[in-house]
Amino acid sequence: MTTSLIRGRPRHAKAQIRMRLTHAVLGAAVGAGWLVLPVTTVAAQAPVPGSPAGPTASAAAPQQDETSAADLVLPLAVGGAAVVLAGYGYLRRTRRARSRTTPGIVSAAPPTPAPAESERQARAALVLADDCVRTSREELGFVPERFGEEEAEPFTHALRAAETELSAAFAIWRRYEEGVPGEPDARRQALVGVIGRCAEAGRRLDAEAAALDQSRGLEEGVSGALEVAEGRFRELTARTATAGNTLTTLRERYPPTAAAPVTGYVEQAKDRLLFATTHLNRSRQADDRGDRERAAAHLRAAEGAIAQSGILVDAVERLASRLGGAARLVPPALTDAEARLALARKGEGTPGAGAPEVQLAHADAVLAGVRAESTAGPYDPLDALRRITRALARLGAGRSGVLNTAALLVARDSVAGAQAYVTVHRGAVGAQARARLAQAVRSLAAQDAEEADTQSRQARELAERDVRGHGNPYAGGDGEAAGSVGAILGGILLAEDPDGGPPASFGGPRTRGRRRFPRTA
């Protein structure tokens, strides 16, 4: 009972304050009216006739008094109104202040987002900027074939500038993931840097989008661009069939793990070509009707699918070539590694000297295992080279000549494979996989083959995990529907509408979706 009374007192006190303030305001208004009332009454009375006798000055005195009283009316009325308005304004301000969820003064500066929200924004910015760069690279690939390299140079320059900004953003993000910097304020600034770099990458591409459209001239007709796209389409149709035969040969010659990186690629290439067929036909039909906007949109959808089909076929052909090259490198790499291991066992003055015996024994076992596999039957030569070069690297035995060539071959294959996978599945791949891939690209440029191989393999694993979480668009789908779902997964369509949305075009976030399919009347 006592507690409830105590808790009730503030409310009662506040009510009393409001009541007193109201009374004061009303009292001031009544007082002002009371002061005005006599004056208005005097002014309303009939004038008293002046006496004919007496001096002139005595007749002027009442007139002066009457004028002075009348002069008080306006100031008193204004003062009373000011008191009333001030009191009313105070009441309203008091009520607004009490109704706010956050008491006190509201800062004009926007609130600082929580770290988790800033990280989410940075990840989204990285994915968006990376998508814009990859899409721009795909469309730009159709320009030189028709107009020449010189015509494409300004757009190539903008793309390179965007790639530089994006690479810097990924580098900042990668250090952030590793805990650098450690101070909270510095970490917030790092995220601001990531978002800012991504925005600049997009701005560089946005700035050139209109010029690229003018250069291509699709609004004036797509017949010339269609010829280029259809020529590349026919070439890829033949190459896709050959890639199917190549993949069959790989499966016969090597164990399943060797061909695993390109499993399903031929089917996906065919799916992209099916999608391209539909949109090439629609583009030509729209162009024949004079519907330039629709023709350009369908052409861009077809070009995106053709470009990704080429990436998938290239991946199969590249893997076959590198497996053959790796198989030729395994014998000399083994010989070189065994010679270096023998030198390391001698001790002083040789690379790898002083390594613990257990490490020497492990390297010896790895080399013996690879030699046995290479003579026993089908094996994965790329994996064999990876094991050879890493066994020697763990000893600090140095790497040059054939071993360095072997390590770079493995790294290039790994990075290229991850790049292809992310590009053709970018509609589902998140920032973490892309950041690892960007680190792999930087490491490869610095000739750090082992780090490039490690980061790209991690990127591929993370990307595959993202795609599994997204779902397989090729399971149970056929025809145009399957092609459209695959196009969304590949980022060919931007997934902004139920029908898949606009095709992605050269440009940043502001312009990449400019070529929308017009609504049918």
Which keywords apply here?
521 residues; mainly alpha; 17 helices; 0% strand
Report mean pLDDT, rounded to a whole number: 83
Series of H and E elements: HHHHHHHHHHHHHHHHH
Shape: globular
User: What class would the helix/strand composition place it in?
Assistant: mainly alpha
Weakly predicted, low-confidence segments: 1-15, 23-78, 81-88, 96-106
Q: Bin the helical content.
A: over 70%
Largest sheet, if any? Answer: none
Q: What distance lies between the first and last C-alpha atoms, to the nearest angstrom?
A: 73 Å
Strand count: 0
Indicate the proportion of strand residues.
Answer: under 5%
Q: C-alpha Rg, in Å?
A: 40 Å
| Number of H/I helices | 17
What does this structure look like?
The chain has helices spanning 2-44, 56-71, 73-99, 115-140, 144-147, 149-177, 184-216, 223-253, 256-259, 265-289, 292-346, 357-376, 381-395, 402-424, 431-445, 449-470, 479-489. The protein is mostly helical and 521 residues long. The protein is 77% helix and 0% strand. Residues 1-15, 23-78, 81-88 and 96-106 have low confidence and may be disordered. It starts with a helix and ends in a 32-residue tail after the last helix. Helix 11 packs antiparallel against helix 14. The protein contains 17 helices and no strands.
Secondary structure layout:
Layout (H helix, E strand, L loop, with lengths): L1 H43 L11 H16 L1 H27 L15 H26 L3 H4 L1 H29 L6 H33 L6 H31 L2 H4 L5 H25 L2 H55 L10 H20 L4 H15 L6 H23 L6 H15 L3 H22 L8 H11 L32
Helix pairs in contact: 1-3, 4-6, 4-7, 4-15, 6-7, 6-15, 8-10, 8-11, 10-11, 10-17, 11-12, 11-13, 11-14, 12-13, 13-14, 14-15, 14-16, 15-16
